[in-house]
Amino acid sequence: MTDRALAVVRSGALTTVQDLGRPGHAHLGVPRSGALDGPAAALVNRLVGNTADAAVLETTLNGCAVRPRSSVVVAVGGAPCPVAVDGRPVAWGAPVPVPAGALLEVGTAVSGLRSYVAVSGGITVDPVLGSRSTDLLSGLGPPPLTDGAVLPLGAPTVPHARVDVAPQPAPPTELILRVTLGPRDDWFTREAQGTFTSRTYRVSSASNRIGLRTEGPALERAVPGELPSEGMVLGAVQVPPDGRPVVFLADHPTTGGYPVIAVVRTEDLAAAAQAVPGTPMRFLAVRRG
Predict the structure, then answer these.
(1) Any residues with CB less than 8 A from the CB of 283 and at least 6 apart, and which?
(2) d(C-alpha 23, C-alpha 112), whole Å
(3) Burial grade of 226 (CB within 10 A; 0-12, 13-18, 19 or more)
(4) What tens digit of pLDDT does each residue of 178-195 get?
(5) Between the CA atoms of 184, 172, 74 and 165, what dihedral angle is there, to the nearest 10 degrees?
(6) How far lies 64's CA from each of 111, 124, 139, 271, in Å?
(7) Strand 175-181 with 280-285, pairing
(8) Across-strand partners of 6?
(9) What is the tens place of the pLDDT at every residue in 234-273?
(10) Could you give the CA distance from residue 113 to residue 81 in angstroms, rounded to a whole number?
(11) Taking the alpha carbons of 117, 119, 122, 128 in that order, is the dihedral positive or negative?
């Protein structure tokens, strides 16, 4: 067995392998998947000298612990958290050398929800439909990490970055999501449309990689009945029967029968990935284009 590998010592609440995802397969019923906080994943890859499409680890809330079988360089970004090598604190948001056999511990997020761990050479589990991403909805890609799992690593190609720390956006204390109304906003009363873009919601603890669920005022329908299933896109804001909007994230279904009142700007979804339950949030209507 190659010595270019990571042994998982503590898998954490939910740690998955993620890369840029597998876009272009919606017609097969396959979601895009990929890192929820794309900019954070891209940054840690740059810090260790990986290409943008290299696979990283996406942790949820309480991090993970891994032991490399050879010397590697790692970088941890996204949600701020303590990072240690063999019990010694090391930098978050910067490239850190980790000797062969040392224990890299990624701790509980201080703020935000998802941290990203890049390793020089990238994680090289077998790709499925061109991606190494774990897809929780369809089950494609590698399963979520479990204690004792071993992940193969690629060979580094370029030196890591020479920085002390790389600036990263702070997780949101209030989540503002810019939306374009439609295509089914006319399925809701005028009052409900006004409520959607003027009232404050909160992020629900039922949120996951499939969708960010909300707590707040229910949106009243103007049109009874249900739609035939329609195609769903990343950032679609679907409204199920309870009237509370759901923002579709990377592992969302590719079709759905509940009306979509609006679609979130793609560049705002990284902040949604870091919004912890209870975070106040608002939908801000913007013009198409």
Answers:
(1) 177, 179, 196, 197, 201, 237, 245, 262, 264
(2) 26
(3) exposed
(4) 999 999 999 999 999 999
(5) 130
(6) 16, 18, 21, 22
(7) parallel
(8) 68, 151
(9) 999 999 999 999 999 999 999 999 999 999 999 999 999 9
(10) 10
(11) negative
